[in-house]
Amino acid sequence: MMSTVNDIDGVKHTFTKGAIDQLLKQCTHILIDDVERKITEQDVTTLLAAANDLSSDALRVLAFAYHTKYDDLPENEFEQQLTYVGAVAMIDPVRKSAIEAVAQAHDAGIDVVMITGDHAVTALAIGRDLDLAHSDYEVMTSEKLQRMSNKELLRVIEQIHIFARVNPEHKVRIVEALQAKGNITSMTGDGVNDAPSLAKADIGVAMGITGTDVSKQASDIILTDDNFETIIKGVYEGRNVFQKIRRAVAFVLGINLANVLSIFVLSLINHVSPLEASDIL
Hints:
It is a multi-pass membrane protein. By secondary structure, this protein is of the alpha/beta class.
């Protein structure tokens, strides 16, 4: 959640926005038709159900609330006893290039895992569009991850393709679990909170345009175009170069081996070297 506190004519007004499930926990009242009343369990159930329906359509739901206080309010109480106002649903459509990049990654044998702050239902809807996940069993929330021991996480880590509502500590646990299973991990990120997991991954990739200085310093690679597809193109280029190096080495070794065998066999027959140094060169 995020709040601003405004002092208007000596009255403290707190305006808060955040995930609806988290915001409702701090709300004691609801505003309906410009009238405040106490919020009920039925209100919460109805609001969460509506938000869940929107999230299942890959919409991001952002809720709003406020609080008015006529006397001094401790800082730790700014986001308490709020009055729920409403919510908006926004769509951030998956780019076609992202879908193609994920498909190319799968073709290259790379398993893509999405770590997001979105609601689990929203994350799954996006994951379906990206062909990352197709069932609830492939999605893990921060609450479930928090309850799991490292041993339990290791058992299921390779079956999970979406992690929702995770914090920086969880990201590090995810990277460590994947590494413990023998995977080479690459982590992308752009914020200060991503720095620990970027540093922990085998290859940390920071966003060059939107990335913070901290995330860039913690990374091994910086994407100048902030495009996930660039990573996949880099993998293909790297593999192409590696294959060419292998072929070149095999070619050179083959020629040298043929020269050595020819000299060795002819030397046994004639007891003299059949080739001079100038002939080999």
